[in-house]
Amino acid sequence: MKYLWLMLLASLSFFSHAAPKAELWPYWNQSNETNSQVIDHSEWQRVLDHNLIQQGSNTLFDYAHINPKDRQVLLHYINTLTKLDPRQFNKSEQFAYWVNLYNAATVQLILENYPTTSITKLGGLFSFGPWDQEILTINDHELSLNDIEHRILRPIWQDKRIHYAVNCASLGCPNLSTNAFTSKNTLALLKQAELNFIESDKGVKFNNGKLILSSIYDWYAVDFGGEGGVLNYLSQFKPEIKQTNKKPSYQYNWALNEK
């Protein structure tokens, strides 16, 4: 038993110091830029409208009180998206498709395992969360949440703001967007999510002159140009960062983002 506990602690420690690299899955790096068809995300919007609550700087999901109809709508939405071939759409539609699918699937995972105190409790004894579980099938390909984020979104779009768009159902994470992503609103939502997170204490804060950053900026520093790139980037929003000469510390709250 002592050995098993040490193994579990080791797996948790590993995640705190490492994160999946962006490694392209070439199959999904295709698009039809002549296709002007729009994917309908209204069902996801309905679920968001009925179940998100703003509390301070956090947007919380009311997992405990979601009604049966909204559960049905959520499942139907996910099933509808998985029956599409995203490669047949243009890149703007694809981005919204993958972000919304990631977030909807994450909410569904929590609902399937609720009550739980943290998404990190899901996934089995030696798993830190469910991110490597293959939970979706698209074009006969099984995908995990990590596949969507690290093998599709990050390597194809190479936009650091992706980290503000995908939601891990935790208080330390950038908030789940109150608006479903679409090809028309993506840029505006990314810009707003970026600003909201950096302006929140869970993104960037000072404590007695000490700079404390979200662990996102540690785990995914490579997407921001390394630690120096992180500080240069954040100083565009918070110029006072330039005045500190101490290395930042990092924090993250894995508690469930529930009402």
UniProtKB/TrEMBL annotation:
Q: Which UniProt keywords apply?
A: Signal
Does this entry carry the keyword ATP-binding? no
Signal peptide per UniProt: 1-18
Family matches, as InterPro entries:
DUF547
User: Is Transport there in the keyword field?
Assistant: no
Residue ranges annotated for the DUF547 domain, each copy included: 87-198
**Full protein name:** DUF547 domain-containing protein
Which organism encodes this protein? Vibrio rumoiensis
